[in-house]
Write a structure and sequence with these properties.
37% of the residues lie in helices and 16% in strands. The chain is an alpha/beta fold. The protein folds into two domains: 1-31 and 79-120 and 176-254, Rossmann fold (3-Layer(aba) Sandwich), CATH 3.40.50; 33-77 and 121-169, SIR2/SIRT2 'Small Domain' (2-Layer Sandwich). The strands form two sheets. A six-stranded parallel beta sheet has the order 3-2-1-7-8-9, sandwiched between helices. It has a three-stranded antiparallel beta sheet with strand order 5-4-6, covered by helices on one side. Helix 6 (82-93) packs parallel to helix 11 (242-253). It is elongated. The chain starts with 5 loop residues before the first helix and ends with a helix. The structure holds 2'-O-acetyl adenosine-5-diphosphoribose (OAD).
Length: 254
């Protein structure tokens, strides 16, 4: 991080209200496969685009549920990385950190971050397809991981309305949760500094948050080992991975 100017580090050190936006790159070093990675193992012949839609779920709920069970099971075996932990530790040191994530995993929470805004939903909690009631599922069994895709699962039902439970994620063709989006947009402009970690900036409306911050004169720091379309919005660009850069950065400002 030799390239970061002392004035920029001062900005980071003095920030009291920080908004952080994370994407799939944040969880890459924990071993979470990104959405765009080819699927492996039992599900290698299926495309996420054909599974992650309301129509796919309604056509074969037990099949889609089985796929999400296998993803939840994989996630259970993974751990937050040093980047997640650094953000959680930093949240305790400053008056306000708003953490917005596009990730459907719970690794920020498991590292200790609180109040995380999941703009693309969550693998768990899940929700009722009909009334939207939210349910936290117990851990998945080994059987869920090893079940063949055509061995359709029995989908649990809502205690309130008996509707089918569905994954809590935002599917293709669905709107983002309105309250989460509203909070995210507010946090993008009402902060001293925005950190953008591990997102390609290809998926809207979330990809517009760094631009909104810049328009509000908020300095935007981008942490990504690779170039992205968001680079033009950066006041500080740090080429490196989340688990390497975040702990080193917070060491230098704390
Ligand atoms: P992408 O998979 O599009 O981009 C991941 C970004 O992380 C890329 O820019 C990589 O260069 C970067 N990256 C990779 N490894 C990294 C590391 N170790 N540390 C930091 N950065 C790293 O993921 P998102 O931008 O999150 O939406 O994708 C946004 C949305 O697209 C997802 O939330 C999902 C998908 O469609 C929904 O599910 C609604």
């Amino acid at each position: 991080m030799r390239e970061i100017r002392p004035e920029a580090l001062r900005q980071l050190r003095q920030a009291r209200k920080v908004t952080v936006l994370t994407g799939a790159g944040m969880s890459a070093e924990s071993g979470v496969p990104t959405f765009r990675d080819a699927q492996k193992g039992l599900w290698a012949n299926y495309r996420p685009e054909d599974l992650a839609t309301p129509a796919a779920f309604l056509a074969r709920p037990g099949f889609v549920w089985r796929w999400y069970e296998s993803r939840r099971r994989q996630l259970q075996k993974l751990q937050p990385n040093a980047g997640h932990q650094a953000l959680a530790a930093w949240q305790l040191k400053i008056p306000k950190m708003t953490l917005i994530t596009q990730n459907v995993d719970d690794l920020h929470e498991r590292a200790g971050s609180t109040g995380v805004i999941h703009v693309h939903g969550t693998l768990n909690p899940v929700k009722c397809f009909d009334c939207g009631a939210s349910y936290q599922l117990p851990p998945c069994s080994d059987e869920a991981e090893n079940a063949a895709p055509d061995q359709e699962a029995e989908v649990p039902r809502c205690n309130r309305c008996k509707g089918l439970l569905r994954p809590g994620v935002v599917w293709f063709g669905e709107a983002l949760p309105a309250a989460a989006l509203h909070k995210a947009e507010q946090a993008a402009t009402d902060c001293d500094l925005m950190l953008v970690v591990g997102t390609s900036g290809q998926v809207y409306p979330i990809a517009s948050l760094p631009g909104m911050a810049r328009s509000a004169q908020v300095p935007v720091w981008i942490i990504n080992p690779n170039a992205s379309v968001l680079d033009d919005q950066a006041s500080v660009l740090v080429r490196g991975t989340a688990a390497q850069v975040l702990p080193a950065l917070f060491d230098r400002v704390s």
